[in-house]
Amino acid sequence: MDDKILYERLKAKSDIPEEYFTYRLSSYDYYKHASKKPTKSKKKNVDKIDESEDKIIDKQKLKALHDIIKYCDNIENNFNDGRGLFIYGPSGSHLGITLLGTFVLRKALSQGKKCKFVDFPTFILNISSYSDEFKILQATEYYTTDFLMIDSINAFQYLNTSMVKTNFADLVFQRRKAKKPIIFSSHSDPDMLSLSYCDTLSNFIDSYCEKIDLSVHSIARMTLVEARTRIDNFARSDPGRDWQKYTVDEITKIISNH
Predict the structure, then answer these.
(1) pTM
(2) pLDDT for 67-79, tens place per residue?
(3) CA-CA distance, 131 to 128, in Å (whole number)?
């Protein structure tokens, strides 16, 4: 079969939203936009917007993009090892965690791999009951496809029955056994998910997924002790600074600048 025809067939069966095929890696927004400060124009006595600070490279997002490219460059080995991804970050970000995940699926499609994209509510609906023929078909694909991406796995309310938890745990276990990668995107970090999801999922993420962090760490919801633990590496690199005198807000500002 012609490679182009094969790609189009695999693409059609992947359920990746069409708009994600229009983006390139260069579409990924790895800038954080600083507030524009009005300055006085020398020629006229009017306020002028200073564009010099409009875009500042976000090191965390740039590293995430680098990690995705590295994963894609090594996609055959990652596939053979059954190694997936757990991409997490804030909701509502422009071209964020879902886009990065679909970059990987598109790369896999170009290598002739079968891929399946599913949002988490639909995924849960399809594994919650095997009484419907369509759901059986969908669930079977979740087990057998080469690369499975489950998008926005942060909706805790969907895991509210023992059947769902059992079927979800079984899927994760069977894919791990078959060395078939899963790509997760989430607006919750792994520690938050581990409080609500099955141990099988938490262990799978820890052992078989590379974690890509796009989160803006919110120190405000932590205790001061936890916050100081988070900045331990910074403390080691700057032993002359008296960290005990810093407030949570000050620690947050320090972390955000690294």
Answers:
(1) 0.73
(2) 999 999 999 999 9
(3) 9
